[in-house]
C-alpha cells in the first residue's frame, strides 16, 4: 500500500498550486467556489476536516484493511437530486446559513470544469424519493384522521416522501458569530476537545470552512417540495432530535417517538390539504450528550432517593454530563433556510429553545402544536412535568402536566 504524507503547517505554500477559494454567501455556486474535503490531492483541499463526519473513521479502517483504495473517486453518474431545491434568497445571505453548504447537492452541475480537470469534489447533500411506513399511521387511517389519497398516502399506511441527507459544513467565522464566541477561541477549543484531531483549526486560519466529525440530518418532505417556500401554501414542521431508544425501539421513558409520529401525522394532513410538511431529523442523541450519558442518567434518576422525580430530572443530567443540553439550537434553522422556508404555520413542538431559534433567524411561526395527552407514555410523564417546571414552554398554549394528567383521568406519575 502506498503511503501518503500529510503536510501539517502553519504557513501557506505560496509556491505550490492554490486551491479554489471559498467565498461564503456568494450569489452563485461558481462564485462561492467548491468545498473540497477529499484527501486524494492535499494541494486541492480548501477546508478543514473530511467528508462523512464520524463515518470517516470507518473509511479509514476500510483503507487500513486494504478493502478501499484511498484514492478512489466517487462515480456520481445518475446521482443528481430527484427534486431540485433552490437556489433561494437565503443562500446568498452569509448569516442565514452557516452550518451547511447550500450548494452541496449541485456539485456535478456547478463545477464540471474543475471535476474534469481532476478536482475530487463531492456532494454534501443528497436528495432522493422513497416510501416510508410508520405502523401508527394505520391507526390514524382507521380512525379517520388521515384519508389515503393513493398519491401521498397509500391505504396500507405508507407514504411517499422526498428526503434530503445533509452533512454538516461549518463556515467558522459565521458559526462563531452565530454562537457569540470569538472565532479564535472556537477554533482552539475545537482543536483541543477533539484531542488535536484537526491541527489545521489552529495552524491554518486561512481555511474558514470545517467539516466536523459529527452526525448530520435528514429532512423528510411530505407533499410537493415546491410548496415549502410558497407564501400561499400551509406548512407544518417537526424539528426532531434523535432518540434511538424511543424512535426505533419504542422505549416509553420519553415522548420522542409519540411526538415524532404525531408530527408526521400533522405533516400528512397538511400536505393532503394542498400544503406541505417536513420532519427535520437531527443526529443529536441524548440532547447531543450521547446515548451512554443518557443511560447513565436514566440509572441515576431511578436510583435516587424518592425514585424518578421531575424536580431532579435535569439535575441528574447535569451531574453526569456537566450540562443539561448540548444541542445548540441556534444552528438548527439553517436547513429551513436552505429549503427557502420563511413561515411555518404549524410547528409541532413545545420547545421554547427551538421556537426561539427559528423565529430569531427570521422565520415566522404561526401555531405551536403540543403533544396530545393520550399519546404520552406512562413513564414519560416525569419528563413532561420536569420540562414544564423548567420553563421549556412559556407561550401559554401548553397545559400543565397536572391538567394533562386530569385529562388522562389518573394521577400524575
Verbal overview:
- The C terminus is likely disordered.
- The strands form two sheets. This protein has a seven-stranded mixed sheet, with helices on both faces.
- It has 413 residues and is α/β, with parallel strands linked by helices.
- Helix 12 crosses helix 13.
- Strand 9, helix 15 and strand 10 form a beta-alpha-beta unit.
Query: What's the β-strand tally?
Result: 10
State the secondary-structure class. alpha/beta
Largest sheet: 7 strands, mixed
Strands of the biggest beta sheet: in what spatial order?
2-3-6-8-7-9-10
How much is the average pLDDT? Answer: 88
Give helix and strand order, one letter per element, not per position: HEHHHEHEEHHHEEEHHEHHHHEHEHH
Rg from C-alpha positions?
A: 23 Å
Gross geometry: globular
Counted by DSSP, the helix tally is: 17
Strand content: 5-15%
Poorly predicted runs of 5 or more residues:
7-12, 395-413
Portion in helices: 25-40%
Terminal residue distance: 61 Å
